[in-house]
Amino acid sequence: MKTILVPVKMVLDANVRPRVRADETGVDLSGMRLSINPFCEIAVEEAVRLKEAGQAEEIVVVSIGPAKAQDTLRQALAMGADRALLIETADSPEPLAIAKLLRAVVEQEKPDLVILGKQAVDDDCNQTGQMLASLLDWPQATFASAISVEGDRLRVTREVDAGLQILSVPLPAIVTTDLRLNEPRHCALPNIMKARKKPLTVSNPADYGVDTARRLTVIAVRPPATRKAGIRVSTAAELVSDLRQTGVL
Fold first, then answer.
1. What is the maximum span of the chain, computed from C-alpha positions, in angstroms?
2. How far apart are CA 103 and CA 82, in angstroms?
3. How many Å apart are CA 47 and CA 153, to the nearest integer?
4. Cα–chain-centroid distance for residue 218?
5. Contact (CB, 8 A) for 239 and 248
6. Among 57, 131, 145, 191, which residue's CB has the most CB atoms within a 10 Å radius?
7. Is the pTM of this model over 0.85?
8. pLDDT tier at 226 (50, 70, 90 boundaries)?
9. What is the pLDDT of residues 32-48, one digit of tens each?
10. How far is CA 177 from CA 126, 137, 140, 181, 227, in A?
11. DSSP secondary structure string for all residues of 48-117
12. Domains delineated in the chain
């Protein structure tokens, strides 16, 4: 393989408690710590491992989002990616618009493999990889827990309800990553410093002729209801009695 393309997304850090805006239009990100989506981080790690094994020559990371997403791209560059592309937009594009933008990037970069996280932890859509494969008419292997290169094909182990399924797909292909694929590395300070000098190109959706206007309207976003404190019972009979009083039984 010559080039691997890895789309990454900036999301609210998984260790931060989300906060809903007062007008219930979404999650308030002001002043919150943002980071690379965990599944995207796994995708970057896998691409770097393939390059380190001599299976690829270049890794290109791409993100679609606000200017601050450059921080996410720099993190991917520090992990070992070679260059980055930011398609800057203040909107929050839906999966189909993201897939259309990625298709345009694929046509421009001509990668042999696209690895992306199976989903983002903020919206949990789990749609972009599948839509991109359909738009490109490329083979796809989703929920990958193991990847190996066999000539001009990929051997992908994927997790399904019944257990594990092994696929052999020809390149170029789309692969989406699951949690058990790898453990992403920590970025050493020298690599973080080197990442600042790696090329990062900024464009916008209009450059690719893609309309990112949303087709769906969010009616309201609300935090989950506060749970009542639990109680401890001494006997099974007392438990059944309490459940009957609350209307569960």
1. 68
2. 20
3. 15
4. 21
5. no
6. 131
7. yes
8. confident
9. 888 999 999 999 999 99
10. 11, 19, 11, 7, 33
11. HHHHHTTS-SEEEEEEEE-TTHHHHHHHHHHHT--EEEEEE-SS---HHHHHHHHHHHHHHH--SEEEEE
12. 3-246 (3.40.50.620)
| CA pair distance 63, 95, nearest whole angstrom | 13
As a residue count, the chain comes to 249
According to DSSP, the β-strands at 83-88 and 58-65 are parallel
Query: Hey, how many other C-beta atoms are within 10 angstroms of the C-beta on 13?
Result: 15
Phi (first) and psi of residue 81, to 5 degrees:
-65, 155
Write down the pLDDT at residue 44: 97
List the structure tokens of 77. 């560059």
What DSSP line would sit under 155-203, residue for residue?
Answer: EEEEEETTEEEEEEEESSEEEEE-GGG--PPPPPHHHHHHHTTS-EEEE
In the chain, % helix, strand, coil (3-state, to 5) comes to 30, 30, 40
Distances (CA, A) of 188 to 46, 75, 194: 18, 11, 10
Fill in the amino acid letter for 104. A
Instruction: Write out pLDDT tens, residues 72-120.
Output: 999 999 999 999 999 999 888 999 999 999 999 999 999 999 999 999 9
